[in-house]
Amino acid sequence: MSYIYAMPFRFPKNEKLKSRKTIQALFSEGTRVNHYPLRMIYLSMEGLENNKAGFSVPKKTFGKAVDRNRLKRLMREAFRLHKNTLKPNNGDHFAFLFLYIGKESCDYKSVENAMATLLQKLPE
């Protein structure tokens, strides 16, 4: 029995943001867009072969690792499902960093709505 995988709905390792240089560039030069409870910082990068995304939840607000990991899972799932709305801009690829800025934990629906709205605000 063969399985057909929908490629756009995967979040493989090569799409995860891990480079310290890229993360520093995001914080210093990136553009910030907010939609409660998320903040998206993005930067167009020429050297990337595909879009890369990272997710962060502040330890100061959510002291327990269980709570932080749950929110990061929700953000990754919402990004995975909505990343196909991104269109390649003349071959440029983006580096994204999604920060959870809410003070309380929230449900998946509000994270998904915020993620969809943020990805639509990306310039063409």
What do these coordinates show?
The chain has a 4-stranded mixed beta sheet, with helices on both faces. α2 links the parallel β3 and β4. α2 packs across α3 (108-120). It is built from 3 helices and 4 strands, in the order αβββαβα. With 124 residues, the protein is an alpha+beta fold. It is globular and about 40 Å long. It has a single domain (13-120), classed as 2-Layer Sandwich (Ribosomal Protein S5, domain 2), CATH 3.30.230.10. The protein has helices at 20-29, 65-82, 108-120, and strands at 31-35, 38-45, 52-56, 93-100.
The overall pLDDT, averaged over residues, is 90
Structural class: alpha+beta
Written as H for each helix and E for each strand, in order along the chain, the element string is HEEEHEH
Strand content bin: 15-25%
Low-confidence stretches are: none
Give the overall shape, derived from the CA principal axes: globular
Instruction: Report the radius of gyration as a whole number of Å.
Output: 15 Å
Main sheet record:
4 strands, mixed
How many alpha or pi helices? 3
CATH architecture annotation name: 2-Layer Sandwich
- Tally of individual domains: 1
Separation, N- and C-terminal Cα atoms: 41 Å
CATH C-level class is Alpha Beta
CATH level 3 topology: Ribosomal Protein S5, domain 2
Give the SSE layout:
Elements: H1 20-29, E1 31-35, E2 38-45, E3 52-56, H2 65-82, E4 93-100, H3 108-120
Parallel strand pairs: 3-4
Antiparallel strand pairs: 1-2, 2-4
Helix pairs in contact: 2-3
